[in-house]
């Protein structure tokens, strides 16, 4: 799962047997550990599989969510009516109050029973909209060390801290042989180029479908090499524009917001396919056999060394 300790997985190729993959979508960033999904998680997973999702990489935010993600995987891992699942391990920069050191995460990775489910370190990074920024810097550095030690890719978060975030990545990039992804990207063209130049992948969410918030993102999408593109929901937030009150079995959370789910990942895939492959006529409302689905699934298999 973790690859050759001395190898660089960013350049590996992964072939997909499309005849044996009915639902070729990978959601690299659902937050199913949150209480927003506790009451109907089984239905969420089943509908995701039916909507074209073959694998979910469950995002870990802190120790408690790591335990919850592991519980979810153990509960559903033998079932064929839900997507396959793996997880990240780490502490989100917005959860510094619950951070109790890296020992829990290290032990999680040292234990073969839990390590087998982990495909990335994170969610980790810097967020200057959150408190405890000095602590975030220290914790991010510890995550970079952990990714280097266990040769795992990084699942990265950055908000309003690009310069320092990039400087820290540059200091470690020679040790980060497994690469990583800047998830939920919504930055500038210059910021995008700096991540691409480091060999990182870019995660795109439902923001790409939003008329106002996604406008600048749509304008720079062509600057992302297709072999660095990944898609995600970041659910329960960031529901695509296509998800409305008329959507079947819609659920609300928070202050009346539409809850995003992995089943809506097809809208991200289809939006990108229309944008980047306007002459592709394979897309329908119910099928995800478009080029973006194929490309992003191959990229996810390569970066995270997962199976579908």
Describe this structure in words.
The protein is of the alpha/beta class and 308 residues long. The protein has one domain (9-304): TIM Barrel (Alpha-Beta Barrel), CATH 3.20.20. The chain has helices spanning 41-50, 63-76, 103-110, 112-115, 133-150, 162-172, 189-197, 215-220, 265-276, 291-304; strands spanning 25-27, 53-58, 84-89, 118-127, 154-159, 180-182, 201-204, 229-231, 252-253, 257-258. Strands 1-2-3-4-5-6-7-8 form an eight-stranded parallel sheet. It has a two-stranded antiparallel ribbon with strand order 9-10. The radius of gyration is 18 Å and the shape is globular. The relative contact order is 0.17. Mean pLDDT is 90; it is low at 1-23.
SSE layout and pairings?
Blueprint: E1 25-27, H1 41-50, E2 53-58, H2 63-76, E3 84-89, H3 103-110, H4 112-115, E4 118-127, H5 133-150, E5 154-159, H6 162-172, E6 180-182, H7 189-197, E7 201-204, H8 215-220, E8 229-231, E9 252-253, E10 257-258, H9 265-276, H10 291-304
Parallel strand pairs: 1-2, 2-3, 3-4, 4-5, 5-6, 6-7, 7-8
Antiparallel strand pairs: 9-10
Keywords for this structure?
308 residues; TIM Barrel; 10 helices; 34% helix; globular; disordered N terminus
